[in-house]
Design a protein that fits this description.
Distance between the termini: 20 Å
Structural class: mainly beta
Oligomer: single chain
Strand order of the largest sheet: 1-2-3-4-8
Order of helices and strands: HEEEEEEEHEEEEEEEEEE
Helix content: under 10%
Radius of gyration: 18 Å
Number of helices: 2
Shape: globular
Strand content: 35-45%
Largest sheet: 5 strands, antiparallel
Number of domains: 1
Length: 243
Amino acid sequence: MSLIDASRVRKILSSTVGPVPWYWETFPSVHSQSGQKFIWQHHGTEGPVAHLVTLGLEQEPDKIRLALNTYCRPFSLSPNALGIWCPEGRSIRLACFDPDQLKSFDVAEVAGWFKQSSDRIYAATAPIADFETPLALGPGTHKIAVPAELAGVDELIVPTSYKAMSNDEPAFALFIFYLHAGLVEVLPQKWFTAAQYRVGQQWITRAARDPESQRIVGECFGAGTFLLEEDGCRLAEWIERST
C-alpha cells in the first residue's frame, strides 16, 4: 500500500509550477501594485518565437514585457513582485521583477536568436534584484546572501541537473531555498543515476512538499511521479508510473 494517496500527489503537482515551455499553464497569476493584471502567452511550436513564453498586460497582450526561454520558472513574491528562477551556466539564478516597471518591447527583438541562445530571461527593464547560487555546492545546508526583495519566500524547491563523476553518482539534485533564512539545502537524488535512468531524456521536472507528511513528492518526465524518503535524497516509492 502506498504511503501517500495518488490523488493527493496529483493535486499537489498540478498546482506546482513547471518549466518553460511545457508547463506554462501552471504559471502564477500576476497582478501589479497598481492593480494591473498581466497574462502569460505561449508562442506555439513554429516560427521565430516558437516555444517562448511571454508576459504582457491583459489589455495589451501583444506588447511583450518579459520573455522566458526554456527551463525558466516564475514564482510569486509578496506583495506584488514576480520572481523567476532558471539555470544560468553552472549556477541557478533567481531574479525579482516589479511588473509595474516592465517596459514593453517588440517581439522582433527576441525573434530567432533568443531561443537558440544561452540567455534565459529577456526584458527591457533590469530586475530589481537577482543573485546566483553555484551548482557545485556539495550536499547539506549552506548560507547564501539573499537580496531583501527575494527574502519573503519561505521555501522554493528547485530541481536541477547535478554534476556526476560516474554513472553511479546522482545526476540530479533538489536545491531547497529557504530565502527568508538565507539558506539553501542541497539534496542529491541518490536514486537518479545514469546507470538507472536515461539522463536528459528522463529528468525531474518539478517537486513539492506534501503539507501533511512534509515529505517531498515529484514528477520525473518519462518515468512517473514519486515520493522521497524523509531525508529527501532517496526514492521511497513510485506513486504512478508513466506508460
